Amino acid sequence: MKSSSQFIIEPIKKGISMTFQHTAFLILKEKQRPLSATRIATIAFRRGLVKSWAEDPINSFIQTIEKNIRDSIYNNPELIFVYKNKERLIGLPTKNYTENQKINITISLNRYQKELATILKKVFKKESDNELYSYFVLTGMDTVKTDLINILTKVMKKGEYFE
User: Fold this and answer.
1) Residue 136: CB partners within 8 Å, gap ≥ 6?
2) pLDDT mean values, one per 10 residues, the chain (163 residues)
3) Backbone angles phi, psi at 81, to 5 degrees
4) Which pTM was predicted?
């Protein structure tokens, strides 16, 4: 049976790079307790799990993780601040995300938005409005925006148009 640290190191040996965020998540999962951002960064760089060309790699790692959590942008996998004895640590959320929950969302669209949704269904190859909106919510709008730009660029190069 593999130790938890082997699970972290194996992707690196295979040449798969990880983000600071994902590395922090895996270290926290291995340690099973909140740690300071400095401790997480030190472990990550000492093990060679991440690389940085910043002047101060440890500080770059710390600032990136803390900004991701504070701004709730790029905080995936999700990390949280944990306050213990007047110290701010980084931890894993205690929520159980293993169960999918179905939620219903009602969206009111004007005529232009409905036409746009019809086009986007074709662009993203989705069968229904619900499938399209679920894709937007689950993927995240930054990724959707990037995907849309890439798809439209390819379409324009080929001279194809959606009807």
Assistant:
1) 144
2) 45 63 91 93 90 91 94 89 90 64 73 86 86 77 76 73 53
3) -85, 135
4) 0.52
3-state secondary structure (DSSP) of residue 24: helix
Q: Distance between CA atoms of 79 and 25, rounded to whole angstroms?
A: 7
Q: Count the Cβ atoms, other than its own, within 10 Å of residue 132.
A: 20
Backbone angles phi, psi at 90, to 5 degrees: -110, 135
Q: How many of the other CB atoms lie within 10 Å of CB of 111?
A: 7
Nearest-CA neighbor of 21 among 48, 42, 47, 44? Answer: 44
- Quickly tell me which residue has 């990136």 as its tokens: 64
- What is each CA distance from 97 to 92, 93, 101, 103, in whole angstroms? 11, 9, 9, 14
Q: Domain limits of the chain?
A: 4-91, 111-158
In whole angstroms, what is the distance from residue 125 CA to residue 135 CA?
11
* Greatest Cα pair distance in the chain: 62
Residue with tokens 């101060």: 56
Which tokens go with 11? Answer: 């992707």
Peptide bond into 77 cis (omega under 30): yes
